[in-house]
Amino acid sequence: MTTNLDIIRATYEGTSEENGKHLLAVLAPDATWTEAAGFPYAGTYVGAEQIVAGVFQRLGTEWEGYSAKAHTYLADGDRVAAFGIYSGTYRKTGKAMTATFAHLYHLQNGKIIRMEQYVDSHLVQQAMLP
């Protein structure tokens, strides 16, 4: 039996391509994805198309070697939290960053219905400054 924790772990622990494939497979059609205030892609995106275009395509094109490496997970019923480190180099400035993050997922019937990001956005913004 696949648990909610298994579902979320599968979106972090493979290659970027595998993680993206797993994420798309478990997003509910009307999933909401909230990037934290102060983060470059701040706001709430609804559905896979908005989430991919508003967050993941931008990360893939604006950053070199961008990654989100989770090191700790906590599961509580229909909620799973992932804690980890973002890293990457902003292409326009050539500056690298590392920043801690927490992602809180809410799942229903094996699908992600909501994700909220918490991040030290100051460190990310510093890499983007000329």
Write up what this structure looks like:
With 130 residues, this protein is α+β, with helices and mostly antiparallel strands. 32% of the residues lie in helices and 48% in strands. It has helices spanning 4-9, 16-26, 47-62, 121-128, and strands at residues 27-35, 43-46, 63-76, 79-90, 95-108, 111-119. Strand 1 (27-35) and strand 2 form a beta hairpin. The longest helix has 16 residues, at 47-62. The mean pLDDT is 96.
Which regions are unreliable across 5 or more consecutive residues at pLDDT < 50?
A: none
Q: Rg from C-alpha positions?
A: 14 Å
Mean pLDDT: 96
What share of the residues does DSSP label as strand, in percent? over 45%
Broad structural category: alpha+beta
Instruction: Quickly count the helices.
Output: 4
Largest sheet: 6 strands, mixed
Protein topology:
Blueprint: H1 4-9, H2 16-26, E1 27-35, E2 43-46, H3 47-62, E3 63-76, E4 79-90, E5 95-108, E6 111-119, H4 121-128
Parallel strand pairs: 1-6
Antiparallel strand pairs: 1-2, 3-4, 4-5, 5-6
